[in-house]
Amino acid sequence: MNVELNLPPRVTERAFARLAEINDGGPARPLRVAVAGGGCSGFQYDIRLDDPAEDDLILQGAGQSVVVDPVSLPFLAGAVIDFADELIGARFTIENPNASSSCGCGTSFSI
């Protein structure tokens, strides 16, 4: 991997703002960003609303939380978690400096 392991991922204001919109009117559930084996490039991102676990890294902003589990953290070191709203669709995105290649849709990558 290219980035120091102690450099945590960063969440943009736009991603926190979208998470706040998703949680509007209900309890603020954290967004979990995880890495799992699979996908067309070897690893894939798992992004979903989920409760935090005791050993998760919790990133906070705008009254919202993004959680990353300790197994996924080295794969996401130095990554930027953002939200994109484009003609092809709206989604959370990850700019990952550890990925040597990724698929066209941006949901899987290799190291």
Largest sheet: 6 strands, mixed
CATH-derived topology: Hypothetical Protein Aq_1857, Chain: A
What is the tally of beta strands?
9
Helix content: under 10%
CATH superfamily membership? HesB-like domain
Assign an overall shape. globular
Name the helix and strand elements from N-terminus to C-terminus, one letter apiece: EHEEEEEEEE
Plain-language structure description:
There is one protein chain. The chain has 111 residues and is mainly beta. The chain has one domain (10-99): Sandwich (Hypothetical Protein Aq_1857, Chain: A), CATH 2.60.300.12. The chain has 1 helix and 9 strands; from the N terminus they run E-H-E-E-E-E-E-E-E-E. It has a 6-stranded mixed beta sheet with strand order 4-5-2-3-9-8, with helices on one face. Strands 1-6-7 form a 3-stranded mixed beta sheet. A hairpin with a 2-residue loop joins strand 4 and strand 5. The mean pLDDT is 84.
Give me the secondary-structure topology.
Layout: E1 10-11, H1 13-22, E2 31-37, E3 43-49, E4 57-61, E5 64-68, E6 80-86, E7 89-95, E8 101-102, E9 108-110
Parallel strand pairs: 1-6, 2-5
Antiparallel strand pairs: 2-3, 3-9, 4-5, 6-7, 8-9
Provide a concise account of the structure shown.
With 111 residues, the chain is mainly beta.
